[in-house]
Amino acid sequence: MKTARYIMMSVAAAVMLGGCMDLEEVRILDPSSIVPPVLNPFDLEAVEVTNETLDKTLTFAWDEAYFGVQTHISYSIEATYGDSPKVVLFSGLSGTSASITYEDLNYTLALDPALGGLGVPLDTPSEVNYYISASIGNSADKYYSEPRALAMTVIYAEPIYPKVWVIGDFCGWVHDSSQYLFSFNYDANYEGVVYFGSKASNGFKITGAASWENTTGNWGYEGQDDPEAETITLTNGATTNIMLYSRPYYSFKYNTSTRVLTKQMSFDKVTCTINGAEEDMSFNTLTQRFYLDKTLAESDVIVFTIVDGDNRTVLGSLEDEKLNGGEADAITAGVSGNYRILVNLNNSADRTYRFSAEEYMNGDGGMDPDQPGDGDDETASESWGIVGGPNGWGNTPDLVMVEEGGFYVYKGLALEAGSDVGFKIRFNNEWNDAANYGVLTDDPAVIGPDGNPVETSGGSKNIYVTAPGTFDVYFNLAGKMVYLMNAGDPAPVFDTWGVWRNGYEQDITMTEEGSWYVARDVELNGEIFKIRYASAWDQDYGTALSYENGVPVGAAVLMNPKGVDMSGLTGTFDIYFNPTDGIIQINEAGEPAPEPVSWGIAGSVTSWGDYADLTMVLDGGSYVCRNLIFTGPDNGEFKIRANSSWEASLAGTYASSGSTFNVYAGGANISVPAGTYDVWFNPSARTVTINAVGSSYVADWYLYGNFGGNTTDWTNVEMASASVNIKAYMSASVSIPDDGQFLYKSGDETQWLGPDRTMASYTDPYTLTIGTAFTTSADKVNARIPAGGTYDFWLLPEAGRAYVMPVGVKPEYVPDTWGICGSISGWGDLGDFAMSDNGDGTYTRRDVRLSTSDEFKVRFGNAWDRQYSVNGTASEGVNNVTSDGVAGNTRVAADGVYDITINPAAATMTLTRK
């Protein structure tokens, strides 16, 4: 690459209607003006990685690069060993320093070059050269520092492969306890050995992520094959499980493209024979390895056997650590001492063994689906329980916790003082690191509603007290919190709003005071913070606009779901949050509380704040200001704002009387022609409707169901327009009880929609999956939500589909993946239609219904930084695409249902019409 080559940077303007990007600015940078980064010397001369030093960090510090203009620079840490090409260790860094753990460094340094690593020799000091590279925008050009050498001693690290989740009754239907199939060739083929115990026939599924989203893969079985079928074809989104298999162990292969599941083998156990003495090996469900702890002599002769009833397959070795031989190819140990013998059968083309002194007697390695607790003691099986001092650390069954109000609860637990007689919480009487919860530090437990953060793994600490007492124990699995309440005290409140601060272990709980949720005396030191629900990221709020100098203090500020991170404040503050209206107010600690949120109109009619805002009154689910007189363009502009604060103002583009339009933070003023109007505002949907005076307000669509905790009476909930580009309606933050049912109806009640009767297989009511699209029609059944809660309800009446989503999450939204954005998604009003990773550098979205009038592009991460388009009408088959951000949109030549595949590296798009 010539250094004289210039770099072109494009700064894109906002995406306009139709999805195209205008090129706002182009700069040409002279390479002679570019100053590369400078990697500073390390503060040590050598790094030795051991199992005891994995948590240590190595700090990389560098002087920033300069590209001739002020611009965002992305840095990477790269390395070479010997004559190897540079390997990127860490990328996307934006500062001038980074502290990397030895564990993270070790992984890529020790990894085989064929898998993308450096291949540094194990257990011996080796010189590694480190570099800092700098780049800007999407340019492929990098500018490197001079290398800094460091002696590195690395240890073995297991390769990390792409995986799919195998989840079922055998693991309690908990993704955190799943086993996996792995893509050893980084393609669409995944395989592995899974241990079901006696529970394979109870059912399982395969998912593409730790979720039930169809967009990432939720594969079940709807066919009629015989038990123990060699191959079956799965269905994405199937409501029925895979229930054809009944053996303890299976080696499965699954192709995510063809959806074919292949049974490669089934068996009862694996044994290890040493000098003629055969022993059963245990199976670690976390690493999916067989293991046996033994004291070995160098001359010991070893073989392994896969036992399937009377059939026995003996595995020997033709080369070190490879199980590629038979009974005649026995292994000579070659080592002496205490070792854990490990056998890995997951990769059918590369079965391996190894001896590990460091892992000898290192825990039992995971969960047995059958033992203990799979017998007469039904109360102690398949449940969360307490194990520790109160039950002799498992000498008797665990103390069973019962579900109560979002917690697993055990009341009246008598505890003695001290860590050794403390307790942990575990699932199903078993020491499974993925379902074994203890606290993070050696500190005693906090007694009361503040609670204690807990984490999985055998490295967590016992939960204990310093004075004996009797306690009620509340465990919140989703939020990973344990509360010890003095016996008889009220239950803690976990499912509420809180303040998350970067660098702190737990959120600050907000208490409900009228229409506000409040956290008082919050200490901030410039760190990032947000508001979120139940200490989880399903529902979180940030500001609607970015504040470079910190969030304004003492004024109402507009918030958005998944909004901008807040930061830049130092001091002690009282934080007030109103989720219904999406408003935050941050006051200096001790200042009077803000008034409840009220909405008003400010603009030319109030001399833009010289006079008090015109008050809007609540009428149903919306606010209204009636008989508002506008005399012409010079006196017909306004915004809607909360508590007379410009930081909480909204505006948008008026179309015509009676129409509903979206309003936004930072939007252009609402401008209306001369006349007298009623102005309606829906704060949840952030829409405005301007009607002629006296016109009754009727929304286009309503939810009709048993909402608000009422399980019998059905009520209306207004839906507001959620898109300026497509017909999409949404009701935000609507509460529905357990087993709540609902339908959709038009404002004039001429249309009633619900789950399509055929799609629902004539089941009434039809049970919905949160976050998953369902087909709607007038030939309908009722929709049912088994787990009550607060959700966003969406309807696309013309597209014939609907969604029930977690609050603040757009339909179809999947972060950090390729997706389709266009007229079918409202050009970003919905989430992009996510594409599945095929494992070969290509990504596919199947079954997309398109007409010749539809237009779309493919982009990454629901953003326009990386995008592709055919720039016109695409043909069936392979099409070249452009990625300059200026090209026109993609259209199809004929109406139909298409599979759309993008290959970013080859810059091609393939359309397959079904």
Automatic annotation (TrEMBL):
InterPro entries cross-referenced by the UniProt entry: SusE (IPR025970)
Pfam families: SusE (PF14292)
Biased composition (Acidic residues): 371-380
Boundaries of every SusE outer membrane protein domain copy: 46-110
Location of region: Disordered: 360-389
Name recorded for this polypeptide: SusE domain-containing protein
Native source organism of the sequence: Candidatus Cryptobacteroides intestinigallinarum
Taxonomic placement: Bacteria, Pseudomonadati, Bacteroidota, Bacteroidia, Bacteroidales
